[in-house]
Amino acid sequence: ASTSHLQLTTFALGTVGWILCTVSMGIVEWRVWHVDNTTIISSGVAWVGIWKVCFISYLHVSPGYKEQFCHKFSGHDSSIPHEIYAAQGLLLIAMCTGLLGLTATIFGLRNAYRGITHKTIIARLFLAGGFFYISAGLCVLIPVSWNFYSVKHNQSIAFPPSYHMPSSPAAQEAGAAIPIGIVAVILLLLSGTFSLSYRFPVTVNTTMK
C-alpha cells in the first residue's frame, strides 16, 4: 500500500478529468458567435454546442423579459459540420473509457491497500486504467482541437432556415467548453502516464544462517 500513493493521486486526477470531460460535453458554449442582425438573436450572441445551438431573443416575450431558444441538432442535418458530429461520438467514448479507467484504478487500489500480494493482478489493473485514461484523453483532445481550429478560422455553418441562424458570424470565439476540455485532456493524460508508471515493489527474502 505504501507504494500506491501515486496511484491514489492518479485516481484523483482521473476523477476530476472525467468530470470535466462530462461537463464539457453537456454545456452548449463550444463556439460563441457574434452576429450583426439582431432581429431574432436579440443579444447578438449565439452559442453553438455539439448537441444544440442557443440564443437569446426578445420576440414573443413580454417587455423587459428575455427567453433562450435552442435547436437540437438532428442526425438528418447534413449541413452540420463533421467536427460537431465527431465531438458527439468521441466525447461519449471518452466518458465511457474514462469510467472504465476509474473502475480499474479503484480495484487496483483496493487490492493494494488490502495487502493482496498478487502483483500480476494489481499491475494489470493499473495498466488497464492507464490505457483507458490515455484513450479518454485522446478522445477529448481531437474534438477540442478540431473545434478550436474552426473557431480560429471563423468557419461558417449552413444552418437550416428553421434554426434562424446566419450561415456565418461576424466573429466567433472559443466558448467555455474548450478550455474545460483542455484541462480534462491534461488531467486524463497525466492520470494515464502515472498509472502506466506503476511498478510492483520487489521484495527480497533474506535467510538467517
Helix percent reads 40-55%
Overall average pLDDT:
84
Uncertain runs with pLDDT below 50, 5 residues or more? 202-209
Note the total helix count: 4
What's the CATH class label of the domain at 1-28 and 75-161 and 175-197? Mainly Alpha
First CA to last CA: what distance?
Answer: 30 Å
Strand content: 5-15%
Kindly provide the radius of gyration, computed on alpha-carbon positions and rounded to a whole number of angstroms.
23 Å
Q: What is the correct CATH architecture of the domain at 1-28 and 75-161 and 175-197?
A: Up-down Bundle
Element-level helix/strand string: HEEEEHHEH
Count of DSSP strands: 5
CATH domain fold name of the domain at 1-28 and 75-161 and 175-197: Butyryl-CoA Dehydrogenase, subunit A, domain 3
The main β sheet shows up as: 5 strands, antiparallel
General shape: elongated
Structural class: alpha+beta
Membrane topology: Multi-pass membrane protein
Main location: other
Family: Belongs to the claudin family.
Protein name: CLD34 protein
